[in-house]
Amino acid sequence: MRRIALLVVSTSALAGFSHAAYGADLGTMRPYAPYAPAAYISPAPSWTGWYLGGNIGYAWGHARSNANVPGFSVDTGAPAGVIDIPGFSSSETSTLNSLTGGFQSGFNWQVAPRWVLGVEADFQRAAQKASQGASDTFASTVLLPDVGAGDCPCGVSGSSSLHYETELKWFGTLRGRAGYVANNLLFYGTGGLAYGQLQVNGRNSSNVTVTDDSAATVFTDTFASSFSKSQWKMGWTAGAGVEGMAWDPHWTWKAEYLYLDLGKAETSAGAAGGGTIKVSTKFTDHIARLGLNYRF
Predict the structure, then answer these.
(1) How far apart are alpha carbons 182 and 65 in whole angstroms?
(2) Is 1 inside any structural domain?
(3) Does residue 13 lie in a domain region?
(4) In a domain, 105, yes or no
């Protein structure tokens, strides 16, 4: 009987100790957390590939022109005979402003996670015009032989003028691009070949009047000529811009500035009284534009 009681007490004590230990262990156990895989992070979009798009912008440029109009001789008949009309030269700078619009296409290579190289060609319609002109007046006295009264003075007066218009009708570029990627933005520099069509239209006129010693008009005439010349010019361009991914990775927007230099356009045309008019125009342009591209 004593043995049975001792066994019951021992069993109860062991059960109580086990329960206490289990409770203490529950207090230190961490709660169960179900397995969850790491969140999926999509890779940054690549800039590599072809693209095609359009743009619209504003251009402001300068036409720096030098013009030379030759002098000529006029046979006024009696009593003055042949007289000389002086030539003149001028130098003038005009501003040409207009909206521009066109399209562009190119290809990008993302050569490193942060660096992009590319090539781009574009064609732009423009209507940049500048009117230029110069004039010169002249007056002199011609002594005419007058039998019995000595030399008789005749007055010679007149003016010569040249007016012309320079127009950039269209232009395009073929450029390399090199850029740095920051998040979804591409900051780039660009430069290369530029080309365009320059049109020069002009008119030259000269008038001369001869009066005798009594101030009566004995001769008057006007000489005029017009000219028009179109030239396809090549030069260079350089600039910078930023391009960004839009709402869809297939679409990008861009803001860009370009400096354009088409060199000199040389124009030669017949002058009003004979000889050759020469006009030399150097054309430079600044272009700021916004564009939208679709990436294939």
Answers:
(1) 44
(2) no
(3) no
(4) yes
Distance CA 50, CA 178 (A): 15
Q: Which domain holds residue 177?
A: 49-295
Q: What is the pTM of this model?
A: 0.75
Nearest to 199 by CA among 114, 244, 262, 150: 262
> Is residue 91 exposed (0-12), middle (13-18) or buried (19+ Cβ within 10 Å)?
exposed
Question: Each residue of 219-278: pLDDT tens digit?
Answer: 888 988 888 888 899 999 999 999 999 888 899 999 999 999 999 888 888 888 888 888
